[in-house]
Structure formats: C-alpha cells, structure tokens
C-alpha cells in the first residue's frame, strides 16, 4: 500500500493541487485535509501547500495557525510525523512555532517570481534524505514575504546543529544567511519558501529536482524510522 | 448617520402622488428624451431607485448605446462553427475544445479606475473579469493583461505603472491564477488615460455551462459573497446625498472599490461546488452596475418577474438608502437563482467556506421586477426595459481631418542609419527602448506557475496551458493591440492586431479557434472617434469572417480622452487556440547548436507606424503594413502541422521592432548565439527593422531543412534561410556587417523598466 | 529628537479585507465580543535634533507618501518629549 | 462601545525595508531632517457594548494574533470615551 500524504486546504490555499500532483507523481497517495478537520484521516505525512491562507491578513500564516487542523498537525509533528511546509506552508509552520524564525516582507519590497537556485545543505531530514548534501537544485520561488529572519542566537544554533536545509545561491529576498529552508530539531518538520512541487515535470517546471522531496519522505516512511 | 427611513424613502406610491417632483436625471447622465421615455414606460415619474437603475443601465458602459449598431456586424459576419457554445450577449463566449471540455475567455477594460487608484483599479479589473468566467460555469485557469501608459519618463507613469502592476499581481496571485502573458506599451497618447485591459480564461465540462436566466417561478434569489458597501456609487450620490451627512468630507463616497481576492477565491470554489452539485438554476456576476445590472439582466433573461426585499442584503455601511444598495459596486459578489428545495443546501455549503449567502428574493411570473425596502415598494419596472431596451444611437461618423496629411507623411522617407556601425547601434537602441525592452520587472511580479499546468508563459509569443493531464490537450492565448497602426488606419490596424494575435497563437503550434476583443477609444460624441470605432469594428468583423473564427465577446471602453485629445484608437485582440497535446508546443529560443535559422514570410520596405520610426524619429505617419489574412491562415496551418513533427525546434513571431528585435529576444532567451547571413541583395536596414506582417522566425533541427522547405513551398509560403545557431558564437553575428556580444545585448535589453522608473 | 507618529487608516466606507479576516479569526481565540477590526499603518518618524517645522513637514510626508487620499485618511501626532506637542487632527 | 488600539512595530533589530524606502524618498519631497522612519501596524478594535475584560481580551488578541513575538512588539491602549482608560504599556 502506498504512503498517504495529507495536503491541507485552508481557505486561500492555492498550490494544493500542485502538491497533490507532486505526491502522485512520486508514487504516493494524496489525501485532502480541510482546515476545519480535527482528525488527520490516518495520513503518514502532511504537506502544507503555498497560497494566501485567509488572505494572508495581518501576517502570512498568522490566522491559519489557529485552524483546527493545525492543532492536530502540531500534536502529530511532536510525535514524529513528517510535515513539510512550502511557501505559505512554511510561513504557517513558523507562525505555529513548529519552526524557528519568521518570514517577512522581501527586502526589495516586491513579490517576485523567479526560478531559484538552491543548495541542499543536509540529508538529515525526513524530506531531504535522498539528496546528496551540497546538491544544487532549481525550484520556482514566488512570494512577497519570504525573507527569513531570526535572532543571531537562533541562526547560530541552526547552523551549529545542521538545521539549515536549503540555502539560496542567489538570495532573492534578503533572507538572513541566504536561508531558504530550515528544519526542527528532530528533522521531521521542514519548511522552505521555493516550491519543489512546481519542479516535478519537465513540461511545466524549471527542473524535476523537486520530486526528491516527496521521494525522500517515502523512503523515510518505508524504513519506519525517524533519524 | 442613521436616518428615519420612513420619511426619506421614495416609493412607487410617493412617485404616483408627486408626479411633478424635480428629479436630477441630467446629473445622472440621462438625456431629456431618455427621461421622458422612462416616464412613458412606467406611466409615472420614476422613484429615486428606479431613476438610479435606469441611469446606470442606460449608460454607455452598460447599454452600449453608441457601439451597438456597429457591434452587430460581429453577429452578422461571424462564421458559423459548432464549437461556439455561447457567444456575444453572454458573460463570456464559450467554445468547445472536444466532446467533453469547453473553454470560456473574455477581455475587459478597467481604464479609468486604474488611473484614479492604480492598484485597486487594476486589481478590481482582474476580479471583475474572473467573475464573468465563473458565471459561465467555468473554473478560471489563467489571466493576462494588456497595459498602456504614457511616456515612461513622465512622473505620472511612475505613479500609475507600479500601482497597476501591483494590483494585477496582488489580485491574480492571491486568487491563485497564473498570469500567462500580456503586453505593455508606452505612448504619450495614453498619458491621461492609461489602458488596463485584463483577460481571464476558464475551463468547464460542457455539461456545466451555466445560464444567467432567472427562470422558474418560486425559485429563490440568493446573493453570495461580500457585504454591500458604499463603494463605487459615486455616480448616483446626487440622489439624496444632502440628507446623508453633515460633513461633506466624510461623505466622499468613493468611485473606487477595494477588492478582496481572498473572498474571490472562496467565490470560485463555492460556485464550482454548487454547479457540480446541480444546485443552481441561473447565475450572474455582480460587476460594474452591481445589483441593478444583475437583477435586471437575470430577470429579463428568465421568466421576466422577480421580487426582492432589499433590506435583506447584508450591508457593510450604515444608513444606506435603497438606491445606494442597488447601485453599489462592492466587489466579490454573485447572484444565484436556486430551487427553493435546494436553497438550504446552497446556504450551508457557502457557509462551510466562510462565505456569506443570503436569500433576498424570488422569481415571479409577474413580468415585473419589484424591489421592496422594509415593506415599501421602491422599484416596480419591466426588467427588459432596463436590460434590453436601452437607447440606441446612430452617432455621426467623420474621418479625422488630419488623416490625409498623416498618410502621406511616410516613415519610409525618414533618414536611415547609413553605416554598419549605425545599424548596430540602432539594434541596441531599439532593444533598450521602452516598448521593446525586457518586461520581466513587471512579469516577475506575477505568479505564472500555480496550478502546475502552465506550459508557456511570458516571454513566449502566447501563453499555453494544459487542460487535461491525461490527454495533454491544451490552449494557447495571445493578447495584442497596436494603437499606432490603428491611428494610421483603424481598419487595417485592427486587422494587424488580429493577425498578430492569431499568428502568436499559431507560432506555439496551436490552432486558433476564437476571438475576444476590448475596444479602447475616445469619446463617441466625437465623430472622428466614432469613425475610427466603426472602421476598427468592421476590420475585426471582416477579419474574423476571413479567418473563419468567431468573435465570441468583448468589451467597449469609450471616453478615453483628456480634453479634446483622444487616445490612439486601440482595439486589443485576444485569440484563443487549441493544441491537441501541449508536449508538442513550439517554444521561443534557438534550439540546439547547429540548427538552421530561417524566416518565413516576405519582408517589404514597411516602416510607417514602426517602432523604429517611433524610437529614432518620434514619428507617426504614413500607412501601416499590409495585412494578408490568406497568408496568415496558411502560415498557421503550416505551424500546426510542423508542431506535430520533429521539424521545428523553436519559432518566434516578428512584430514590433522586426527581425532585429526577434533575434535579440531569441538570443536572450537561449544560451546560444546566432550567425546570420542576410540574403543577397537585401538591404540590411530594411531587412532588420521593417514591420511587414505575416513573418515568423523558425529554428529547424539539422537534417529537417528540406522537409520544412517543401512544406512551405507546397503552401506557397516563402522561406529564406538566414543562418545557424551556434554555441561558440557570442550573441549576434551578422556576417559582413557587425557583431554584438551577448553581454552587450543583455545590457541593452534587460533591466530597463525598473531603471527608467527610478528603481 | 522629535518623534512624530502618522496613523494611516482606510476610510470607513472602504472595505478592509484584512480587518475582516482578523475579525473572523477571533472566535477561535475565544474572543467573542468584538464588533469590528480595522487595520492601518502606524508610521514613526524621527526627526533630527535641529529639524524645523516638524508638523508641516510631517503633513507633507503623510499626504504625499504615506497615505493614499483616494482611500485613506491620516492623523499626525507629535509625541510627548518633543519640542512641539499635542495630537493634531486629520485635515 | 469601547475602542482599543493595538500598535504593532517591528523590533528595532529587524530591517524595515518599507521604512527605509520612505526615508530614501523624503529628499524628493524636499524633506531632509529625518533620521529614521519605521512602519508598523495600527489595529483598531471595537468591542461590543456589553463586552467584559476588554483589556485582558485585547492583550490576548495582540499577543496571540496581532503581533509575532519573534519579530514584533506591541502596545495596547484603550481609547478615551471607553469605560476603561489610559494607555497600557507593552509586556
Ligand atoms: N467589442 C465587443 N466585441 C464583441 N462583443 C462585445 C464587445 N463589447 C461587448 N460585447 C459583448 O456584449 C455583452 C455585454 O458586454 P459587457 O457589458 O461587457 O458584459 P458584462 O455585463 O458581462 O460585463 C457581452 O456578451 C460582451 O461579450
Ligand atoms: Mg458579466
């Protein structure tokens, strides 16, 4: 039986279909989760997609944090379930304090859509274990509020413990230390601004490098261990 | 703020009792005879609410009173095609793609609001066109935008352009629609009247096609979406405003609306869910004229009667009077007609998404649209008199006096660059000019990939979107206008834009099947403008007939005028094509090293109205290039045929800036260089900068040259080999003339918009 | 150093989607008694020691740069501890 | 009806590019004496007539929702004309 990956739809989620396609192409079964759901429908992992949940009022992800489904996801993540947040999903994870730091307005103040060249910094997460550390990948980045910030102590801690997962090679938004994605201490929760789920088909994406993200979690799940 | 409603409301009873009450019909834009006709229709004076409704529905914007007699040509000349499932008169035209899927698309203007408040004006323009697509039963899948501003260095452009782009980006990005293309031009004629035209396209299973009919006596009328506020009712504020507020500043009822793409996204999801569940009998979006338009159009299209209790409309502002509620242009609202047995489910499903839905009335068999407010009747009219029986004008037409002089002032006689060095510099100057330079400063502010079905977007000639992942069937769309050509000859100019949009679609390998248009002109009360309008419409209608594809809908925007100066007549044409398998699309670029570069089409000495004349001489005169639609059809057929083979690696339409600019774009979009040898005897300047239509640059994989040449010859299409693509050539090498390295080309072409706007 | 605060709010008749979204989220925080939420900008401007005509300059900044008069109103207030004092009404 | 204003400002160590952009544009307006501009949010909350514990509720809203403690500070003030009064300091 293939792994079941839950994809959350908040009002205002936009890239949920894309996430489902990526999950499907990687050989897993996408399962829709509604923001109001309390149960996680027995999924093995969760994908928080991009978009503008609740219109991104106030701060991106600020309101989504209070949805019912996030309560369940927080609990499941604490118990080791793999969770990835892309773009708005990353913002939701930071707002929910599942990941450190915050995502603020791009330094150049504009929304920008450009393919981003990234370096995968670690394979010690549920979502990157199939990537060779140091691999260069290209994912589309498209956001207005993707500048990663945290205080120096947090940043140092992230570096020291190898929790910077993706780093920009051409920093598109002013993120501190070129950080594009981070993970939690256990390595099961990962957030990143660029979109791996938009890099899964040669016809529609700048690369197919993104397939490795879902493939990684499938390997992780099939081994039944958390690293 | 709160007022005693019973005292102020002008009811039908009051109107009957006070036939001689003075009414501000002139302030509302009605003519004397129009007001008299309203009185005849009603057999009494209209109430304030009725007066507001007639003034809105009989306005130029809603009634097409000046354009209607000309637009009829579309219906008369449109080729009959079984593909056309819904055409002119519907919210948007619908064309069949195959036996299961149909597509709907439409282009609309939001020019004036975008000048007043660029960000919100443009944003609500996008929001409005998206709702037209939903109203047909379709899921919106992409947007495009066609923009025209004054001179790039004018201070007002620095205000308007970033705001417009921000608005289009914000709305489209937030609502989750990829922006797959558009156009951006600068010309002083648009200084006081920038043009913001937005296109949306949607896809539907053919069985889900919706109608705007309010049919079925007893059916419930439901208002879905945002609350109704005071925005956008500037026009009717002369009604009763004296009593509204003591403070005039406070009472600024803005003509501007603020959009909320988040609510629009919910509207899309809710409407589609309701359509799929078969819960909706009729649907209409609330656009320019709010409830007034939606109520009267659905009632007129249906059984003809409707009763509405206006106090049930959820309001966002206090003290709104009935005519305010009827006229409000608050965004993100739709009107649904629903079987009473299903009304509860409709409300429940809406609320699940967090969307407001309220039953406000019922369909009746009375033949009258009756609107009550707290139990008092404020409107009682035959709905067709509002929606279908507005005034029709036959405005006078006159060719502009200056056209004779302009047409003999030909750009072909202007001084041309004489040396290779001068031509080389001209290539660079043109590439760096506002209309030709790279637009990524704008397009990077738009999401182009959400949905994961975008196969081609900016900077390709047309946007290509996959509709079905299993079959690979998809569509291509291009949006094109050229006000300079249309100023020189509106008939030919409109056809040139049509031909360009058609060719841009064909260049991707798709087969053009339908047209939508947005006609941007000055004041219809100016006979010269009206003449331009008539010529352009005739050009489009004749062109559609010739090309064998129908005009399925569009929009007219008049009064784009500052004082006596009208904008260039600017018909913007959208052409939609279908491609059986998007994997076969032909991209922009240079293919592989060693491929052959060739030009299909004929290059004549045609420089009038060209970008060269504009950039180098600031000149506009002469007659535009010839247009040959027979040739365009053959070209399109050829490209569609070649797209199915291995015979084309890349293709690019030649338009503004001619061959030189097409080469610059192809090189900048590829990693390769190009070695070009012009045909013997060709004048390099003409060859590089002429804007003769019907030309396409093609890149042919090695070994396929003969096959392509044969295919061209069979169709009588001239093809000229120009050179090869080459990984070792740095940029553009024009043998015997000059070289321009990639770095220099890119430095000229890229980064201009931001720099010129002071960023 | 003088500090001026410019508050920029959407005009009351203009839709404030952000405020609406926040209002809609309050019940989930267990807050139920709120009638409306409006969200605007607060701009803090620090003038140099020797700056003159602070109020006038602030108004220019607010009017030309910070607020969009088509849809927004603003208030300028000069903060306590400054040489000039007192809140200043909107224009 | 009680009105509460919550002001939310980016912490001083977080770069505020919007403020910087405004600062950079001031010379073009002929304003030259400004040392810094910071842009934050002003949130106006109207409580219902009968609402209780307004201050406490406002703090909950500000702390949990309106401000992100990683990057922002806030102040809550209950406006004059309300049953409770006086500005309340940040936590
Ligand atoms: N230039 C045009 N060409 C073809 N059809 C047009 C044109 N202008 C308007 N129409 C058609 O007239 C009808 C009314 O137009 P409009 O008022 O813009 O529609 P809506 O009410 O949906 O906004 C629509 O079906 C539209 O497609
Ligand atoms: Mg419509």
UniProtKB/TrEMBL annotation, chain A:
Its main location: cytoplasm. One of its GO terms (molecular function) is glutaminase activity. Pathway: Purine metabolism; IMP biosynthesis via de novo pathway; 5-amino-1-(5-phospho-D-ribosyl)imidazole from N(2)-formyl-N(1)-(5-phospho-D-ribosyl)glycinamide: step 1/2. SUPFAM superfamilies: Class I glutamine amidotransferase-like. The active site is at residues 87, 195, 197. The keyword Ligase applies. It is found in: Cytoplasm. It comes from the Bacteria. The keyword Cytoplasm applies. GO terms for biological process: 'de novo' IMP biosynthetic process. SMART domains: GATase_5 (SM01211). Its EC number is 6.3.5.3, 3.5.1.2. GO terms for cellular component: cytoplasm. Keywords: ATP-binding, Cytoplasm, Glutamine amidotransferase, Hydrolase, Ligase, Nucleotide-binding, Purine biosynthesis. It catalyses: N(2)-formyl-N(1)-(5-phospho-beta-D-ribosyl)glycinamide + L-glutamine + ATP + H2O = 2-formamido-N(1)-(5-O-phospho-beta-D-ribosyl)acetamidine + L-glutamate + ADP + phosphate + H(+); L-glutamine + H2O = L-glutamate + NH4(+). Part of the FGAM synthase complex composed of 1 PurL, 1 PurQ and 2 PurS subunits. HAMAP family: PurQ. Part of the phosphoribosylformylglycinamidine synthase complex involved in the purines biosynthetic pathway. Catalyzes the ATP-dependent conversion of formylglycinamide ribonucleotide (FGAR) and glutamine to yield formylglycinamidine ribonucleotide (FGAM) and glutamate. The FGAM synthase complex is composed of three subunits. PurQ produces an ammonia molecule by converting glutamine to glutamate. PurL transfers the ammonia molecule to FGAR to form FGAM in an ATP-dependent manner. This is Phosphoribosylformylglycinamidine synthase subunit PurQ. It comes from Glycomyces paridis.
Automatic annotation (TrEMBL), chain B:
Keywords: ATP-binding, Cytoplasm, Ligase, Magnesium, Metal-binding, Nucleotide-binding, Purine biosynthesis. The keyword Magnesium applies. Residues 26-65 form the Phosphoribosylformylglycinamidine synthase linker domain. GO terms for molecular function: ATP binding; magnesium ion binding; phosphoribosylformylglycinamidine synthase activity. Mg(2+) 1 binds at residues 108, 555. ATP binds at residues 64, 106, 517, 554. Pfam families: AIRS, AIRS_C, FGAR-AT_linker. It catalyses: N(2)-formyl-N(1)-(5-phospho-beta-D-ribosyl)glycinamide + L-glutamine + ATP + H2O = 2-formamido-N(1)-(5-O-phospho-beta-D-ribosyl)acetamidine + L-glutamate + ADP + phosphate + H(+). This is Phosphoribosylformylglycinamidine synthase subunit PurL. The lineage of its organism: Bacteria, Bacillati, Actinomycetota, Actinomycetes, Glycomycetales.
Automatic annotation (TrEMBL), chains C, D:
Transmembrane segments: none annotated. Keywords: ATP-binding, Cytoplasm, Ligase, Nucleotide-binding, Purine biosynthesis. GO terms for biological process: 'de novo' IMP biosynthetic process. It is found in: Cytoplasm. It comes from the Bacteria. Pfam families: PurS. GO terms for cellular component: cytoplasm. Pathway: Purine metabolism; IMP biosynthesis via de novo pathway; 5-amino-1-(5-phospho-D-ribosyl)imidazole from N(2)-formyl-N(1)-(5-phospho-D-ribosyl)glycinamide: step 1/2. The keyword Nuclease does not apply. SUPFAM superfamilies: PurS-like. Its main location: cytoplasm. One of its GO terms (molecular function) is phosphoribosylformylglycinamidine synthase activity. It catalyses: N(2)-formyl-N(1)-(5-phospho-beta-D-ribosyl)glycinamide + L-glutamine + ATP + H2O = 2-formamido-N(1)-(5-O-phospho-beta-D-ribosyl)acetamidine + L-glutamate + ADP + phosphate + H(+). Its EC number is 6.3.5.3. Part of the FGAM synthase complex composed of 1 PurL, 1 PurQ and 2 PurS subunits. Part of the phosphoribosylformylglycinamidine synthase complex involved in the purines biosynthetic pathway. Catalyzes the ATP-dependent conversion of formylglycinamide ribonucleotide (FGAR) and glutamine to yield formylglycinamidine ribonucleotide (FGAM) and glutamate. The FGAM synthase complex is composed of three subunits. PurQ produces an ammonia molecule by converting glutamine to glutamate. PurL transfers the ammonia molecule to FGAR to form FGAM in an ATP-dependent manner. Belongs to the PurS family. This is Phosphoribosylformylglycinamidine synthase subunit PurS. The gene is purS.
């Amino acid at each position: 039986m293939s792994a079941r990956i839950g994809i959350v739809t908040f009002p205002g989620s936009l890239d949920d279909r894309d996430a489902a396609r990526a999950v499907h192409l990687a050989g897993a079964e996408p399962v829709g989760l509604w923001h109001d759901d309390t149960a996680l429908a027995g999924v093995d992992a969760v994908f928080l997609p991009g978009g503008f949940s609740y219109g991104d009022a106030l701060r991106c992800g600020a309101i989504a944090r209070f949805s019912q489904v996030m309560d369940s996801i927080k609990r499941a993540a604490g118990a080791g379930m793999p969770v990835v947040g892309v773009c708005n999903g990353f913002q939701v994870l930071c707002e929910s304090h599942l990941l450190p730091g915050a995502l603020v307005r791009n330094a150049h103040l504009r929304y920008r859509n450009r393919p981003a060249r990234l370096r995968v910094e670690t394979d010690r997460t549920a979502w990157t274990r199939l990537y060779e550390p140091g691999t260069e990948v290209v994912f589309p980045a498209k956001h207005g509020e993707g500048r990663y910030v945290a205080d120096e102590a947090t940043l140092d801690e992230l570096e020291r413990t190898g929790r910077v997962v993706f780093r920009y090679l051409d920093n598109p938004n002013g993120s501190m230390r070129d950080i594009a994605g981070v993970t939690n201490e256990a390595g099961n929760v990962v957030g990143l601004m660029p979109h791996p789920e938009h890099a899964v088909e040669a016809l529609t994406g700048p690369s197919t490098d993104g397939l490795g993200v879902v493939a990684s979690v499938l390997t992780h799940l099939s081994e039944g261990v958390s690293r | 703020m709160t007022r005693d409603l019973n005292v102020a409301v002008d009811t039908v009873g009051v109107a009957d009792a006070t036939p001689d009450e003075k009414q501000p019909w002139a302030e509302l834009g009605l003519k004397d005879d129009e007001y008299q006709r309203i009185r005849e229709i009603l057999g009494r004076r209209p109430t304030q609410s009725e007066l507001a409704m007639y003034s809105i529905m009989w306005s130029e914007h809603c009634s097409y009173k000046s354009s209607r007699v000309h637009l009829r040509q579309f219906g008369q000349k449109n080729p009959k095609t079984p593909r056309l499932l819904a055409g002119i008169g519907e919210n948007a035209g619908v064309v069949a793609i195959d036996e299961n899927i149909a597509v709907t698309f439409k282009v609309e203007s939001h020019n004036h609001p975008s000048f007043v408040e660029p960000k919100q004006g443009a944003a609500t323009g996008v929001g409005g066109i998206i709702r037209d697509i939903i109203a047909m039963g379709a899921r919106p899948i992409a947007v495009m935008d066609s923009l025209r501003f004054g001179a790039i260095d004018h201070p007002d452009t620095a205000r308007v352009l970033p705001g417009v782009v921000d608005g289009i980006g914000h709305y489209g990005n937030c609502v989750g629609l990829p922006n797959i293309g558009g156009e951006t031009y600068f010309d002083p004629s648009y200084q006081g009247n920038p043009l913001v035209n937005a296109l949306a396209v949607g896809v539907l299973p053919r069985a889900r096609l919706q109608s705007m009919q309010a049919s079925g006596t007893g059916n419930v009328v439901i208002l879905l979406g945002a609350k109704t506020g005071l925005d956008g009712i500037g026009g009717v504020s002369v009604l009763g405003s004296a009593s509204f507020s003591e403070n005039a500043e406070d009472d600024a009822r803005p003509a501007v609306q603020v959009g909320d793409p988040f609510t629009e996204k919910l509207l899309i999801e809710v409407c589609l869910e309701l359509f799929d569940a078969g819960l909706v009998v009729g649907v209409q979006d609330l656009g320019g004229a709010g409830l007034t338009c939606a109520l009267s159009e659905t009632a007129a299209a249906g059984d003809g009667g409707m009763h509405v209790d206006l106090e049930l409309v959820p309001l966002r502002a206090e003290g709104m009077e009935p005519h305010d509620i009827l006229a409000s242009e608050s965004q993100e609202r739709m009107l649904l007609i629903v079987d009473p047995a299903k009304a509860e489910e409709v409300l429940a499903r809406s609320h699940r998404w967090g969307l407001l839905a309220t039953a406000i009335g019922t369909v009746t068999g009375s033949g009258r649209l009756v609107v009550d407010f707290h139990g008092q009747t404020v409107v009682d009219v035959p709905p067709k008199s509002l929606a279908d029986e507005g005034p029709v004008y036959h405005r006078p037409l006159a060719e502009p006096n200056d056209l004779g002089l302009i047409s003999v002032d030909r750009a072909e006689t202007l001084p041309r660059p004489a040396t290779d060095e001068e031509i080389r510099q001209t290539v660079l100057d043109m590439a760096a000019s506002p209309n030709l330079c790279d637009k990524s400063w704008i397009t990077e502010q738009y999401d182009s990939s959400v949905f994961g079905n975008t196969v081609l977007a900016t900077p390709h000639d047309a946007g290509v979107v996959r509709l079905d992942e299993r079959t690979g069937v998809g569509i291509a769309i291009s949006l094109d206008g050229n006000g300079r050509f249309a100023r020189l000859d509106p008939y030919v100019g409109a056809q040139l834009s049509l031909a360009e949009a058609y060719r841009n679609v064909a260049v991707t390998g798709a087969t053009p099947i339908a047209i939508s248009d947005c006609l941007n002109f000055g004041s219809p009360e100016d006979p010269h403008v009206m003449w331009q309008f008539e010529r352009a419409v005739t050009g489009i209608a004749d062109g559609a007939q010739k090309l064998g594809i129908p005009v399925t809908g569009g929009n007219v925007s008049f009064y784009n005028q500052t004082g006596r100066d009208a904008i260039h007549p600017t018909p913007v044409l959208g052409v939609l094509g279908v491609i059986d398998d998007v994997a076969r699309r032909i991209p922009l670029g240079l293919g592989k090293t060693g491929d052959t570069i060739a030009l299909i089409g004929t290059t004549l000495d045609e420089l009038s109205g060209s970008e060269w004349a504009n950039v180098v001489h600031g000149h506009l005169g002469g007659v535009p290039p010839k247009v040959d639609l027979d040739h365009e059809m053959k070209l399109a057929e050829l490209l569609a045929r070649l797209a199915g083979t291995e015979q084309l690696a890349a293709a690019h339409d030649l338009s503004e800036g001619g061959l030189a600019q097409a080469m610059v774009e192809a090189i900048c979009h590829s990693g390769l260089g190009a070695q070009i040898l012009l045909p013997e005897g060709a004048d390099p300047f003409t060859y590089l900068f002429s804007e003769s239509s019907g030309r396409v640059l093609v890149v042919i994989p090695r070994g396929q040259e003969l096959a392509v040449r044969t295919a061209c010859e069979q169709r009588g299409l001239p093809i000229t080999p120009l050179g090869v693509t080459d990984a070792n050539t740095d940029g553009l090498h024009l043998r015997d003339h000059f070289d321009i390295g990639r770095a220099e080309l890119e430095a000229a072409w890229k980064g201009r918009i931001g720099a010129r706007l002071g960023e | 150093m003088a500090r001026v605060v410019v508050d920029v709010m959407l005009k009351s008749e203009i839709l404030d989607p952000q405020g609406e979204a926040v209002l809609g989220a309050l019940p989930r925080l267990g807050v139920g008694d709120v009638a409306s939420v409006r969200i605007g900008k607060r701009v803090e401007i620090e003038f140099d020691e020797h700056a003159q005509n602070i109020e006038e300059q602030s108004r220019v900044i607010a009017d030309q740069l910070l607020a969009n008069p088509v849809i927004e109103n603003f208030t300028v207030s000069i903060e306590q501890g400054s040489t000039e004092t007192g809140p200043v009404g909107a224009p």
